[in-house]
Automatic annotation (TrEMBL):
One term of GO molecular function: RNA methyltransferase activity
Region (Disordered): 60-89
InterPro entries for the chain: DNA_methylase_N6_adenine_CS (IPR002052), MT-A70-like (IPR007757), SAM-dependent_MTases_sf (IPR029063)
Cellular component per GO, a single term: cytosol
Protein's UniProt name: Methyltransferase-like protein 4 isoform X1
Record-level GO BP terms: methylation
Classification via SUPFAM superfamilies: S-adenosyl-L-methionine-dependent methyltransferases (SSF53335)
Family recorded in the similarity comment: Belongs to the MT-A70-like family.
Length: 421
């Protein structure tokens, strides 16, 4: 069960269970031969046993006022309030505005989860290093730009099958055509010399911002669009983990060509107030998207503590999501479609143990299903992983599908079964 509980305040997720959807039955293609395996995402990635700051007894959900770093306190230069820059002042003001919502809501959800036997600490810790894999996908996308661009409009087919009838994948053009796994089972295949696990009934396009047109020509309108933009910030620049994108460039995303009327658009936003204002006041209005709610993802340890002190000035234990409905015209805003009748509650919390892998967000399919319907067509932009039943796009769209992040065991022949989408 991936959604452990729900209440008026939000929900508690088992993020690893969500990630593991539909990998219990996989077909592995090796040298055009088929074998059956069971795959699961490495458990070590979701074992955040302790907060990054140790807390005094009973301080886990008191806002962190007594939190102190483990061991000796590092010496920090004291700054007067007047030394705070404008961005920091805005961040503090926003934090004070939402602090009680985060604190009280998280405590209530964690208490309820613990009463059901969840978030009571890990009992079978896996003593293994985190999996790692040098992601070369963005670099490959850059190299693919040197190839002649395919005229999508002149193509009879705007999608290609992941695996040919003989089990071969060497025919694939991953950079200029949407690739589909049309089978009921996940597939373990070789792509660009590396082994990846591809969920069933999923589609993806590996490209950067300049070559997103094949996704438009794919010809689908989506009832749910989730995006996690590579926001510009100092941490990203220092780490060089991935290339960031100026906020103004996001307006070029073809959301009006991809979203269904009244479709739900969900954007992950950093805790930088300028990014939040940009999404609410510029980006969504530019697309014709009406803001309907702001949610918070709260990151906790396996025992229910905040992963960072709530009032930490460095990092907060929460991130934001801005939810909106695509309203292409006045007529659409008064549509009687089923989706428009489902109100989206404001300031809901999503509480989960985060992945220890940088930039891996919890999957939102189960949480958002009530607002879009069970048969909704779903799209993720700037994706770094795939989901069963979803279409995904990004220049690292296969990153967390690499076999290094999974464990696999041989499996007996299995009978077909319906996959949960």
């Amino acid at each position: 069960m991936s959604v452990l509980l729900q209440s008026s305040r939000g929900c508690v997720l088992d993020a690893r269970s969500l990630t593991d959807q539909c990998y219990s039955q996989c077909i592995r293609w090796t040298d055009n031969r088929e074998s059956h395996v069971e795959c699961s995402f490495q458990k070590r990635c979701f074992q955040t046993l302790k907060s990054y700051f140790s807390v005094g007894a009973g301080a886990a959900m008191d806002g962190g006022s007594r939190d102190q770093p483990t061991g000796k306190l590092p010496k920090k230069r004291k700054r007067k309030h007047s030394e705070l820059n404008q961005g920091e002042i805005h961040s503090q003001a926003f934090h004070q505005k939402v602090r009680n919502v985060i604190l009280e809501g998280t405590k209530a959800l964690v208490d309820s989860a613990q009463s059901l036997g969840y978030l009571k600490g890990e009992t079978d810790q896996v003593e293994e290093p985190l999996p790692s894999q040098e992601c070369r996908l963005a670099a490959l996308c850059e190299m693919a730009k040197e190839l002649p661009q395919v005229d999508d409009e002149g193509q009879d087919e705007h999608a290609q099958s992941l695996v040919a009838e003989d089990g071969c994948t060497s025919h694939l053009d991953l950079f200029s055509q949407v690739t589909e796994n049309r089978e009921d089972k996940a597939a373990v295949v070789m792509l660009m010399g590396e082994e990846y696990v591809i969920p069933p009934h999923t589609a993806f396009l590996l490209s950067d911002f300049t070559r997103i047109q094949p996704l438009v020509h794919y010809g689908r309108r989506f009832d749910l669009i989730v995006m996690d933009p590579p926001w510009e910030n100092k941490s990203v620049k220092r780490s060089r983990r991935y290339s960031s994108l100026p906020s103004s460039q996001l307006k070029r995303l073809p959301i009006p060509l991809l979203a269904s009327p009244n479709g739900l658009v969900v954007t992950w936003v950093t805790n930088r107030p300028s990014h939040l204002r940009f999404v609410r006041d510029e980006l969504y209005p530019h697309w014709g998207v009406q803001v309907v709610a702001e949610w918070f993802w709260v990151k906790v340890t396996t025992s229910g503590q905040f992963v960072f002190p709530l009032d930490s000035q460095h990092k907060k234990p929460y991130e934001m999501l801005v939810l909106g409905r695509y309203r292409p015209s006045a007529d659409a805003s008064t549509s009687h479609s089923e989706m428009s009748k489902v109100p989206v509650e404001d300031q809901r919390l999503i509480v989960s143990v985060p992945s220890a892998l940088h930039s891996q967000k919890p999957l939102l399919s189960e949480v958002l299903k009530p607002y879009v319907g069970a048969e909704a067509k779903c799209l993720e932009l700037f994706a770094r992983s795939l989901q069963p039943g979803w279409t995904s796009w990004g220049n690292e769209v296969l990153k967390f599908q690499h076999m290094n992040y999974f464990t696999s065991t041989p499996a007996d022949d299995f009978s077909p079964r319906q996959c949960h989408r």
